[in-house]
Design a protein that fits this description.
8-stranded mixed beta sheet; 1066 residues; mainly beta; 5-stranded mixed beta sheet; 14 helices; 71 strands; 12% helix; disordered N terminus
């Protein structure tokens, strides 16, 4: 799950995932084969010796003598009475959900050995394993046999703009084929699965999410009913609801004689095994101690593990409590079937690389709005909030203006190259449109009325400007945000004219009376807008397109598709033309070998420019579409660029600060210093010790902390939150100020707008804005459909392409977001290993995929594993992988989110610090009227308990507030870890030293030690005695820069005073 912060693609504003219709099958055929069982990387062996297991699917052989089950991605058999299990499958492929054929000769199962989840078949002894299905995108799981042993039904996974997706039941012959659909998905987000044949073969039972609406619901209410059990009649295709109501109904399992249906529902919050009489309709409760089901999560592999009747109809075999259980239906007596697994598994150590945060100078990487002059001699861009110019061929970048009162963005040249239009931003005065005469350097204001102005561009004759007026989003002053849309205005100033309510990135081509603009419908679209009539016509659509730019002479259109730059002849046909980088309707030339953005044309339409981070790329298109040019198409590809950026000093804290007299929680093991002194010089900790050990030098600024507690600043390992609105980054972001005011000095955001967050990161490093240290993956490597997000990976080279494009702009980590196939995820890991990067995957919900991510060496697992209890098998495996865990308890899967607990139990809107730094219009609607529930329904308790047990096993465990409530969420995370059994010190470590270790920063951050960077907080209280005092932050220091946490005025160095926010009373 994830919050998305983008202002461009509103339909995909939630956590997206796996693409709807990309041609991965064809692409995969052209790429080098990747063997899931033998991936590239560094391996070691872990010994698994256990008699308990997590989320085990079980089946009984037709003769009743043998059990087959899965555990940690392998399939085992043993006598039905129990014993030492025999492994039938081998590493590294992940095998699960085994089921005996009716004659007992075969076992069908789900395996990702061929790349992604498919249905496989092997002999009952494990020999002759082979794939029955060969899907590369619409992946399959949950196989079940027809009674005659000829067919297999399975769940097929479908996604569109969200990775949550929906299921369909498909039927395949045991010998292979493409299969046929039995049940069609009702929409793109409601799940369906767990298919099972009736013993007479007439029906296929399945479970389905039946909550209202067409979208997936988080924190669903099981008391209202979630899943229902339906029955598909094979002869007629008719579907009927069989079981529904409070507690839901899942995992339909018919008895061999066809008289009963075993199934599962919730009673209160307890998952319970039930029996349904198919003749009378009577229901009977059989066993009330099952592990919690996954009805409240997204569970494409089944809402509860597969269970099985014995052939004599007398008993049901199932998994619960980490054991394989057998229940006598008549007596309801339950006995464990003992098993023993003693095997070796291959794992890869988690990718983790040391980061260096201590820099005197910053290499600026995030260049925005890069534009070449019409003659190609000069390039202008925005960096660190201001405009720079540089010679296109060589030279040192220079500021275009001398002012520092407002930020400058969205530059665009006039066609004669003599003028440049741009927009300004000032938090109090808001934005204006300005034009600079490049000959005289005189600046004139064309539009002086306050507003959020974006994307200005000159007409060919220079007499008109077209631009967009944007809204405030959640960060900016809501005033002057009305009547958004595309406007024109005379270049000399005058009346604004609204020409379109929709669209963005407007620009002219060869005509003064027509503009082009992008828009989003079902796909990104290029529109033509007649300025006289204001009529619009769609010209092009590109499913994965992120930019369109028509050439000045109107003969070509350059576009970015799947992050690469292309050009094609401009054509009109009265209707939209669907285009892509692989289009064959008209010639399309690929220009960029690497990724590219910010396309700009030369004035003569013969040259094209784009950039990737600090690098400028240039293609000569003089003969790009001459007759016969297709034979030399590769000559137009540009592989190497020119660095046009610069290095600038980092913000340096000055002077000496001494914190004197308080308790110091060092995070060095259990070391706590009473009556401590911490001496900070510049941005580093100079000395740490007791009052008798550390001498305070003369002239030091003394901060009296008697009766208070000093500790490292908090590090939110999974943060979210807008850094800008339509690329406007405010001087004072209340989100960043709230972070520091509540003691969060570092954030790692694993999904954000790439340009905004890396710009904000660089501005924070150089002192242009105030905020915590900002680390991010940038935009996710998305496995589903979303222009600008979908990251196709069919080879190691593909993976490197995507990681390199993010590393170029400042990322040291990437977020692998539900790439559907195992081989894709492995390729991303190997690319990261080669590029010294880290990978934080979208976790949660899909337990089996999560575990394979740990095996493959992901840096972390983000979000809580959906199983309420993890048993010894998982603990043994996980502790060996060194994969860290960020369960984001505030949005913990499986029950009511942790965030809701604090709204339920506390008056969040009255929080003295939060209410000062968050607009009440944002705070009150979520917090004042809130539902309530018993503690047992809150999922975070069980997730936090498991996190504590994993932590005890040596798994690094981190807070991750997910942007749920402007850094108060970081404290909620700490408090919830304590609710799960961690000591206050252990809980505080999840917010300090642990995230620093996770991201390779513990040599510089995370503890109070001499020589480390000075990220410190002072708490007015003792969180070791009362963890709920952690939010009473009095002082915050980030990189040596000291702030009064109440006022957020700077106390050392430049002593910068915070200005009022737009929502504060003035």
């Amino acid at each position: 799950m994830n919050k998305w912060y983008t202002n461009k693609w509103q339909p995909a504003l939630l956590a997206l995932c796996v693409s709807a219709a990309f041609t991965q099958a064809q692409a995969a055929d052209k790429k080098a084969q990747w063997d899931v069982n033998a991936p590239q990387g560094k391996f070691e062996t872990v010994q698994i010796n256990t008699d308990s297991g997590t989320w085990m699917n079980v089946d009984v052989s037709p003769d009743g003598k043998t059990l087959v089950f899965d555990l940690l991605g392998d399939i085992y058999t043993m006598p039905v009475s129990g014993g030492t299990a025999k492994r039938l499958t081998s590493d590294i492929g992940w095998q699960m959900q085994p089921s005996f054929s009716p004659d007992g000769k075969f076992i069908t199962y789900t395996s990702d050995e061929g790349g992604g989840d498919n249905i496989w078949l092997m002999n009952a002894d494990g020999s002759n394993a082979h794939a029955v299905t060969e899907e590369t995108f619409r992946l399959l799981n949950s196989p079940a046999w027809s009674p005659d042993g000829e067919f297999i039904v399975a769940r097929k996974h479908f996604t569109n703009t969200r990775s949550l997706g929906a299921g369909e039941v498909w039927m395949y012959h045991k010998s292979g084929g493409n299969g046929v659909m039995l049940t069609e998905k009702a929409n793109d987000e409601k799940d369906l699965g767990e298919p099972a044949f009736s013993p007479d073969g007439k029906y296929v039972y399945f479970s389905q999410d039946d909550t209202p609406g067409k979208t997936f619901h988080y924190s669903k209410d099981s008391e209202q009913g979630i899943y229902v059990i339906k029955r598909f009649e094979r002869e007629t295709g008719k579907i009927e609801v069989l079981l529904e109501g409070a507690g839901g109904a899942i995992r339909p399992t018919p008895s061999p004689d066809g008289k009963f249906l075993a199934y599962i529902r919730r009673v209160d919050f307890q998952t319970t095994l039930m029996l349904y009489n198919l003749e009378s309709g009577e229901t009977t409760e059989l066993y009330g101690k099952l592990d919690r089901d996954m009805q409240e999560t997204w569970a494409i592999h089944g809402v509860y593990p597969q269970m099985s009747w014995t052939p004599d109809n007398k008993a049901i075999v199932f998994w619960a409590g980490g054991k394989i259980q057998q229940l006598n239906v008549a007596s309801k007596q339950v006995a464990a079937i003992p098993f023993k697994v003693d095997v070796e598994k291959k794992i890869q150590q988690a990718v983790r690389f040391k980061q260096d945060l201590d820099h005197n100078n910053i290499d600026v990487k995030m260049l925005r709005f890069v534009q070449a002059s019409p003659d190609g001699n000069t390039v202008v861009y925005s960096a660190l909030g201001h405009l720079y110019k540089v010679a296109a061929k060589s030279g040192k970048p220079q500021r275009l203006t001398a002012q520092n009162e407002h930020f400058e963005l969205y530059p665009s040249f006039s066609r004669d190259g003599k003028k440049l239009v741009y927009v300004s931003w000032h938090d109090q005065q808001q934005g204006q449109i300005k034009v600079i005469d490049l000959t005289t350097n005189q600046i004139s204001t064309v539009v002086s009325a306050p507003g959020k102005y974006l994307e200005p561009s000159f007409s060919p004759d220079g007499k008109t400007l077209v631009f967009r007026k944007g809204g405030a989003g959640s960060l900016l002053d809501k005033r002057w945000s009305l009547n958004t849309g595309i406007y024109t205005v005379p270049a000399a100033g005058g009346e604004l004219k609204l020409v379109s309510r929709n669209g963005f990135a407007p620009h002219f081509a060869e005509r003064n009376d027509r503009i082009f603009a992008m828009d989003y419908g079902q796909s990104p679209t290029l529109l033509a807008i007649d300025l006289a009539t204001e009529t619009q016509r769609p010209l092009y659509s590109a499913k994965y397109g992120t930019e369109f730019k028509v050439s000045p002479d109107g003969k070509y259109v350059a576009f970015a598709d799947r992050f690469k730059v292309y050009v094609t002849p401009f054509a009109e046909r009265g209707a939209s033309i669907d285009i892509s980088g692989s289009d064959t309707q008209f010639p399309v030339r690929q220009l960029s070998v690497r990724a590219g953005e910010n396309i700009s044309w030369s004035g003569n339409s013969k040259q094209l420019y784009w950039n990737l981070g600090p690098e400028l790329y240039h293609a000569n298109l003089s003969s790009v579409f001459d007759v016969g040019s297709d034979k030399a198409a590769d000559k137009f590809k540009v592989a190497n660029g020119q660095n046009i950026s610069f290095t600038t000093p980092a913000y340096q804290a000055q002077g000496v600060v001494a914190f004197v007299g308080g308790q110091v929680i060092t995070m060095q093991g259990d070391k706590v210093i009473e009556d401590g002194v911490v001496l900070v010089e510049g941005n580093k900790i100079k000395a740490v010790g007791s009052a008798g050990e550390v001498k305070v030098p003369a002239g030091a600024q003394i901060i009296d902390i008697k009766g208070k507690t000093l500790m490292p600043g908090l590090f939110d390992a999974h943060a979210h939150g807008s850094q800008g609105v339509n690329q406007i980054i405010p001087h004072q972001s209340y989100i960043n100020y709230a972070s520091l005011a509540l003691g969060v000095t570092s954030i790692h955001d694993p999904s954000n707008d790439t340009q905004e967050i890396f710009t904000a990161s660089e501005m924070q490093k150089t002192g242009q804005i105030v905020g915590p240290r900002i680390f991010s993956t940038g935009t996710i490597l998305y496995g589903a459909y979303g222009a600008g997000y979908t990251s196709h990976v069919d080879s190691l080279d593909d993976a490197k392409f995507h990681l390199e494009r993010l590393k170029k702009v400042g990322a040291f980590s990437v977020k692998s977001y539900n790439q559907p196939r195992r081989n894709q995820r492995q390729q991303i890991i190997e690319a990261a290993r080669e590029l010294n990067m880290m990978v934080v995957p979208e976790g949660g919900s899909l337990l089996q995929h999560n575990l394979s991510m740990a095996v493959d060496g992901h840096t972390t697992l983000e979000h809580s594993l959906p199983a309420a209890t993890l048993y010894d098998d998982v603990k043994q495996l996980w502790r060996a992988t060194k994969t860290a865990y960020t369960p984001t308890l505030v949005v913990a899967y499986g029950g009511i989110w942790g965030e809701n607990y604090w709204y339920d139990k506390t008056e969040v809107w009255k929080h003295p610090r939060l209410s000062k730094y968050v607009p009440m219009d944002e705070l009150r609607p979520r917090s004042m009227r809130r539902p309530t529930a018993p503690d047992s329904h809150y999922n975070h308790f069980s997730i936090a308990k498991m996190a504590k047990e994993l932590s005890d096993e040596g798994v690094i465990t981190n807070i991750g507030a997910h942007g749920q409530r402007e850094s108060l969420g970081a404290h909620w995370e700490i408090w919830m870890f304590a609710q799960g059994g961690m000591s206050p010190l252990q809980a505080l470590k999840t917010a300090t030293i642990n995230p620093a270790k996770t991201f390779g920063m513990d040599h510089q951050l995370g503890s109070v030690e001499t020589g480390k960077l000075a990220d410190l907080i002072v708490i007015d209280g003792n969180p070791l005695a009362d963890i709920r005092q952690s939010d009473r932050v009095q002082y915050t220091m980030v990189n040596g820069r000291l702030f009064d946490a109440e006022s957020m005025n700077e106390l050392n160095g430049q002593q910068q005073q915070r200005l009022s926010f737009y929502f504060e009373k003035r």
